[in-house]
Amino acid sequence: QAEQYAKEAMATYEKMGSQYKYAQILAILAEMELAQEHNEKAIQYAQELLDVAEKMGVRQFKRDAYKYLMTAYGGMQNFSAYYDYAEKYIPLRDSIINEDVLEEVNRLKVEYGAERQAKENELLKQREEILQLELTRKNWWISLSIALSVVLIMLVSFYYRNRKLKQERET
Description:
- By secondary structure, the protein is mainly alpha-helical.
- Helix content is about 95%, strand content about 0%.
- The chain has five helices and no strands.
- Helix 2 (about 20-35) runs antiparallel to helix 3 (about 40-55) and helix 4 runs antiparallel to helix 5.
- The protein is rod-shaped and about 135 Å long.
- About 20% of the residues are buried.
């Protein structure tokens, strides 16, 4: 029954012109046939998947088609065809894995760079805040020193003025 639903979905996607979904259904059908050891049917679906994958230029579908073909031919004891598809499947699989790994490495580099930049920005912000606090503290001490100096000068001048006035009264 699942096969029937998959075939109906495949017909619908074909009418809609959705090649990607159509290819996904072909892959599902090929896997189902392989699971039931219906290797000849699996080969038909896998070959059609390969044709669609080549037209679309989707390497993942092409890889999957090679894998299904390799597995089906291996199940039929056709080792020549099995070997031919294994020679196509393995390098393509490895190439896709390498691309995925490179994409992940680049994503991590970008993510790490952004994190590092954010940390550096945070450190700079903290340093700026510390410098601002130190500057505020220094300004406070300078203002206090100036105020005390003014008060001291006033006291000294008041003292000398009073002393001078006292001396003038005595003379």
